[in-house]
Amino acid sequence: MWPFDRIRSARADFCAEERASISMETAIVLPFLAFVYLQTFTYFDAYRKQAQLTKAGYAIGDLLSRQTDIDVNDIEGLRSVFGYITSTGEDSWMRVSEFRKDEDDGFSIVWSKTTGGNPNLTDAYIDRVQDDLPNIRPSERVVMVETYTRYRPPFNVGLPNRIIKSSTITRTRFAGRLNFDDGVAREVRYDNPDINAAYREDPDPEPAETN
What we know:
Elements: H1 3-16, H2 22-65, E1 69-71, H3 72-85, E2 92-101, E3 107-114, H4 123-128, E4 141-151, E5 162-170, E6 179-181, H5 193-200
Parallel strand pairs: 1-6
Antiparallel strand pairs: 2-3, 2-4, 4-5
């Protein structure tokens, strides 16, 4: 018998063989199935958290749209509410800003307040992302709520720790603006070069991802 005939015969015998070892097959397949399950669970949890944070951001934006005056305590309280309803606690922070459209089709920050000592929004940052902003009328004002949450995957399946951001832009319902009182007259900044310069700085307020 030629060697090739022996190979074909051995292959045929192997394909016709129906004996097996359940324990051996389990040992081979089970680790792969476990990894696929953990990976699926982790990615599903990440998408679930993203959807939860987005819905919570819309809820905060809707609440602010019904107000006419707020202060620092109100924003800190809203961040606490956000942390409670999303079960993120101190792993989240919030930035609330009001901006308006200028006559030259640009955008300017009217006021901005961030929790946790994080940077406020700036005109320079608004200029970079103005293509993503809604088309509003000149001099119209809108309120933007940004939330940032540290997300740690439940299992190490290749998905790194990250900061999940959600952004909501809404108009006020009962007034053309949302007054913010933090003890500083923000509205005079357009006539005050020092205040205007502070808002023109670009500290790149996007937070860095942390492990």
